[in-house]
Amino acid sequence: MAEWIGIGKRARRCYGFDEIALVPGSQTINPNEVNTSFEIAGLTFKVPILAAAMDGVTDVGFAIRMSQLGGIAVLNLDGVQTRYDNPDEVLKEIAKADSKKATKLVQAIYTKPIKERLIAKRINQIKSKKATAVVSCIPAHAQRFNQIAHENKADIFVVQSTVTTARHISSEYKTLDLFKFCRQSKIPVIIGNCVTYETTLELMETGCCGLLIGIGPGAACTTRGVLGIGVPQVTSTIDAAAARDFYYKRTGRYIPIITDGGMSRGGDICKAFASGADAVMVGSAFARAKEAPGRGYHWGMATSHENLPRGTRIYVGTTGTLQQILFGPANVDDGSQNLMGALRTSMGSLGVKDIKEMHDVEIIIAPSIQTEGKLFQVAQQVGMGK
Fold first, then answer.
1. Is 42 exposed, middle or buried (0-12, 13-18, 19+ CB in 10 A)?
2. pLDDT for residue 376
3. 5 domain residue, yes or no
4. In the chain, at which end, N or C, are there fewer CB atoms within 10 A of the end residue's CB?
């Protein structure tokens, strides 16, 4: 697979969503009769598209609405929701900021200490509406926040960082033992993020209930530019899925993988499932919802880093309600609305009845898939030419 790129150095070719296409099979199915549900931690959700733990995407109200629609929205316990009693005022300030000053403002806003009472309050606000409460934090806060989450009956706990491994080495601070953490946690744990076969396999040994796959593909993420690291999402998902399947054959325990980032349209999401994902996590697509707290703005989780921000604030606009974005009717032509309708239609056209069958569809390398026959769309900047 690898090619020589210089004396003594080989590199393998990896692929992103824009470079592949899905090939229809020998049968088709009524899109209304396919099953899009996925299971994680003993829970079943009809919407396999998670809303990311980003402050411009998920707040309490958004998490409740997403749950009502059959999905999951992850609340960021390291963000403004747990630092400020009135986070909406802070979010309004971020939305109004000049683009040249946005990063500096976000950095300043996130210096305010996290209030543990607000962690409990936000979880209780979600649970009071009988909604699914899924919360996320960085490894440094995991031990304490996990306990608070358990005490307040959160359903799933996410430990998330830019790059996660089972063996983090440091002589400056105490590292989180993921094996011990997952074993002792009284609520199911999702871990992220990783992109390789070996790391995926090793993280599955921790006892987690799911893994987030993806480093740097998000619309507001600048990790790939700042650090130069990452693997395109098609390849990283296929590699992680191979590790999941090997682990399942060896242990009998199936651990879902969730492709995280790089998907803004229905076609991208369909390709992620065909690459082996059990679910996907998106940010920018949901930041466009009227219910999203960012007011049409979206920023990366590491934008607030005080020394080396690896995210930026972008404007994605507000195009419709969360229900429109998930289920339609779509009033835009670029595939960013009615994501579930796109998934169902794609599955029907491919002739697969559920997400697991999506894993077996034929994928071809097709770099012309975005441009073939689309001259007028590109020239007029409509549809796929935007």
1. exposed
2. 66
3. no
4. N
